[in-house]
């Protein structure tokens, strides 16, 4: 199990204090995300629940580099956005959007009032692209998108995921670019062939055994046929310091540390692709341990298929007690765009992974980011 380094250091310092050695207990330097010369233009994203919403937001904001996405138990881009959100500042955005997020983008109880309105969401997306706040829509249309809803999911009901499918169709996606799986009796969870709780269960760590390898299905749909998975990952799970990527950003609700899985070949010489896997609510390391990182199967498929898997970590806060990714505006009203706090931070991470090998700090990534960001 991955234990956050901050927890390990705290335990050591408490022990030192008990023995009278607290003065010598200083915070050790945390390891940085490695620079690997990865192919940033072959990046893909996936996520479950709030992570599904974030995967869609990241894909649409940065479609110049993202080639595919997996929306697992999530709805359409911008679903929670109120028509009045752009007039609000600070926490007011989240308070305004939250009822719609729960009732209209998870439970679908607002369907009689036309929520989610995928026509309006598609128009909003085009408007953001025309304003330069997300990449042009044309970059999206050759992406491949996998969507999934478990038939026993009562948290984000299947009709909401179907709305996401309809949204992509309205943007102009052809049928062959989309896959919608809805016939597996899963609860609200990431699905595996052999790991986790019983298939129909919804509960921590939100990983269930349905005799279906979802990681394989996701990566195959996005990248095409895969080489066989390894039974035991042969690379390294790197726990890295996320804080250098926070520069200039406050109120981001992200943990100090994230994890990246780096196959040995990717560390040594191979130019590898990047897959970003966004956990769901109450599924980060702080809430559910390392199950999402080690039991979903992404690392097993990464070794033979030249993939670095990035597992960024969101944190909890009073506005976000379950450690969700921001899909209703608690980090600010720009949460859907390239200026969003969490999207900016994770984009900086993949920029750094794409830097030439040997640059072991985040400085190069942040310098490169300045060309893409607008201050």
UniProtKB/TrEMBL annotation:
Signal peptide: 1-22
InterPro entries, alphabetized: AB_hydrolase_fold
Alphabetical UniProt keywords: Signal
Transmembrane segments: none
Stored SUPFAM superfamilies: alpha/beta-Hydrolases
Keyword flag Cell membrane: no
Protein name as annotated: Poly (3-hydroxybutyrate) depolymerase
Source species: Hyphomicrobium nitrativorans NL23
């Amino acid at each position: 199990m991955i234990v956050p380094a901050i927890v390990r250091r705290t335990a050591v310092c408490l022990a030192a204090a008990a023995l009278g050695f607290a003065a010598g207990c200083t915070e050790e330097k945390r390891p940085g995300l490695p620079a690997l010369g990865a192919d940033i233009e072959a990046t893909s994203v996936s996520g479950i629940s709030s992570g599904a919403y974030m995967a869609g937001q990241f894909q649409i904001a940065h479609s110049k580099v993202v080639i595919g996405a997996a929306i697992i138990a999530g709805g359409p881009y911008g679903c929670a956005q109120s028509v009045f959100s752009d007039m609000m500042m600070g926490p007011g955005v989240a308070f305004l959007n939250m009822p719609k997020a729960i009732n209209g983008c998870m439970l679908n109880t607002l369907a009689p009032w036309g929520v989610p309105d995928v026509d309006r969401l598609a128009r909003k997306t085009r408007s953001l692209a025309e304003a330069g706040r997300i990449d042009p829509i044309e970059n999206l249309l050759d992406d491949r998108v996998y969507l999934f809803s478990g038939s026993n999911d009562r948290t984000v009901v299947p009709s909401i995921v179907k709305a996401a499918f309809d949204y992509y169709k309205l943007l102009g996606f052809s049928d062959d670019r989309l896959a919608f799986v809805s016939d597996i009796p899963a609860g609200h969870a990431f699905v595996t062939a052999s790991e986790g709780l019983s298939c129909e269960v919804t509960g921590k760590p939100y990983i269930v055994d349905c005799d279906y390898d979802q990681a394989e299905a996701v990566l195959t749909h996005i990248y095409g046929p895969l080489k066989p998975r390894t039974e035991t990952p042969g690379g390294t799970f790197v726990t890295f310091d996320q804080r250098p990527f926070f520069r200039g950003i406050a109120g981001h609700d992200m943990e100090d540390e994230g994890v990246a899985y780096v196959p040995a070949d990717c560390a040594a010489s191979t130019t590898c692709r990047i897959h970003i896997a966004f956990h769901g609510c109450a599924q980060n390391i702080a809430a559910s341990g390392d199950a999402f990182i080690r039991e979903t199967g992404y690392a097993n498929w990464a070794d033979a298929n030249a993939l670095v898997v990035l597992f960024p970590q969101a944190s909890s806060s009073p506005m976000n007690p379950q450690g969700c990714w921001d899909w209703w505006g608690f980090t600010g009203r720009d949460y859907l765009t390239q200026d969003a706090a969490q999207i900016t931070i994770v984009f900086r991470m993949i920029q750094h992974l794409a830097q030439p090998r040997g640059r072991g700090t985040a400085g190069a990534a942040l310098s490169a980011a300045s060309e893409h960001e607008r201050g």
